């Protein structure tokens, strides 16, 4: 019998008015409400919104892996 494990990736976008770190944490927290056994997060893209010459929103796109139970 094969004891190999299977992982699946889902993509989330997290946002924060404070930092990219908080945006990533928000994405992971949201993912954990739907998926169990989260494993690895990989930041794919970071961007931000600028209003009146100041950063108003940090955004991260993140691939999050979770163990797929067969």
Question: In the CATH scheme, what's the topology name?
Answer: Dodecin subunit-like
Main beta sheet = 3 strands, antiparallel
Task: Tally the structural domains.
Answer: 1
**What pattern of helices and strands is seen along the backbone?**
EHEE
Q: What proportion of the residues form beta strands (DSSP E)?
A: over 45%
CATH homolog superfamily: Flavin-binding protein dodecin
Features:
70 residues, alpha+beta, Dodecin subunit-like, 1 helix, 3 strands
Question: Helices and strands in order, then pairings?
Answer:
Layout: E1 6-16, H1 20-34, E2 38-51, E3 54-68
Antiparallel strand pairs: 1-3, 2-3
Description:
By secondary structure, the chain is of the alpha+beta class. It has a single domain (7-68), classed as 2-Layer Sandwich (Dodecin subunit-like), CATH 3.30.1660.10. Helices cover 21% and strands 57% of the residues. It is built from one helix and three strands, in the order βαββ. The protein has one helix at residues 20-34, and strands at residues 6-16, 38-51, 54-68. A hairpin with a 2-residue loop joins strand 2 (38-51) and strand 3 (54-68).
């Amino acid at each position: 019998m094969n004891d190999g494990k299977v992982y699946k990736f889902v993509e989330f976008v997290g946002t924060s008015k404070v930092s990219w770190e908080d945006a990533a944490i928000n994405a992971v927290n949201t993912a954990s409400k739907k998926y169990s056994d989260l494993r690895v997060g990989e930041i794919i893209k970071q961007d931000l919104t600028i209003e009146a010459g100041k950063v108003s929103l940090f955004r991260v796109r993140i691939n999050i892996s979770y163990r797929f139970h067969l």
